[in-house]
Amino acid sequence: LAKTTQPISMDSYEGQEVNITCSHNNIATNDYITWYQQFPSQGPRFIIQGYKTKVTNEVASLFIPADRKSSTLSLPRVSLSDTAVYYCLVGSNTNAGKSTFGDGTTLTVKP
Amino acid sequence: EPEVTQTPSHQVTQMGQEVILRCVPISNHLYFYWYRQILGQKVEFLVSFYNNEISEKSEIFDDQFSVERPDGSNFTLKIRSTKLEDSAMYFCASRNRDPSEKLFFGSGTQLSVL
User: Fold this and answer.
1) Do B107 and A92 touch (CB under 8 A)?
2) I want to staple B5 with a disulfide (CB 3.0 to 4.6 A). Which of A82, B18, B24, B103 is the partner?
3) How high does pLDDT run on average in chain A?
4) Cβ-defined contact of A100 to B43 (cutoff 8 Å)
């Protein structure tokens, strides 16, 4: 399973765009990149998933460069309710879900 | 959006007692998982379950743990003889057949072993 590295914490202010980068140098050909959000005392919640280039949904964008050794989660115009821990996971059909989450990035949004 | 349901939300037990944590995965999902999260620590994979059998388990999932899908809707985690260090939040998750499908997590059961 590809190991991931993320910043431990980030601070931002309401209304700003936040970019969280995850390094996954050992990503395999079949691996997808998935980001989850977790609030205190709740289960992780899926945000976005991608394989290459750019993916956008109603809550975030995911940028993946051509070498796929990193990915960047972009949250547009964050609000206080986006304060949470964000996890980057890398996995394929043979190991989907079968991995311990990394340390994640604790995002604190300030007023 | 469909939900994974876990009961109870909180469970307090004495050391050495057996506990059963219950989960109702999303109805058309085929892959089921248990994770645990000790306070302030990572979300740790325990076990995955597919086609009525364990497909993979972590080193945490020792002989004290077992999982079962007793009927078409429930998925349970049993801890045979609880230890103090089993105190954690336990999350159930499920997903559909496509391996790129996202995991849906329940809201967890907070287990406190006294």
Assistant:
1) no
2) B24
3) 91
4) yes
